[in-house]
Amino acid sequence: LGRGNRDKVQQFMTITGASEKVALQALKASDWHLEGAFDFFYSQPQISAVNTRHLEDIFNRYKEPDSDMIMVEGVSQLCNDLQVDPQDIVMLVISWHMKAATMCEFTRQEFIGGLQSIGVDSIEKFRGKLPSLRAELKDDNKFREIYNFAFTWAREKGQKSLSLETAIGMWQLLFAERNWPLLEHWCQFLQVRHNKAISRDTWAQLLEFVKTIDPQLSNYDDEGAWPYLIDEFVEYLTENGFVQRKK
What we know:
This is Defective in cullin neddylation protein. With 247 residues, this protein is mainly alpha-helical. Helix content is 63%, strand content 2%.
């Protein structure tokens, strides 16, 4: 490489934090124009994010000193650095991108793979991505995926069902996004009438109920194939006068 091109490689690596190999790839693709190389680099998240050295550094910053995992303390520090509350729903969206198996834990593979999928290789870029991660909840298909993911993610290890307390907390978090007017009635109903763990089927069916049945229950079919618990909820709403159903 000539002196001028070597300088460009150096400059590119300094500004983007990319490896020499990636710098050369971007500069060659743009005919050695620096501006074009930056455009090329940032338009390819799989290239720009795969600065594994940076990703490893970020993981190592938060992992436990004596294990290859990020645990509660590391997650708390990460939230601090991202300037978000640990209870913020955006942390659920991040965990979904990371395909995390368990709440408040990330393996090295989950964390680094997640950062690659989000397309960030620094905490500053990560912070800048939060608004677009939050906006993913407005997409119905992504919301459904995140909703279904939340059931497995929030379960106690080794359990098939979700404890009632955890399920209610997750529903309050998720349906606050959807402004479902019957949310508090549903949570009260479960505590009064059900008081048991929540199965995956109930979890999935409730989303269908929220999406398809209007809050006045005018399109609720008593003969429909809803789970027994949802039929009971409709009875509870009617008996207590929370909803006036037209006969």
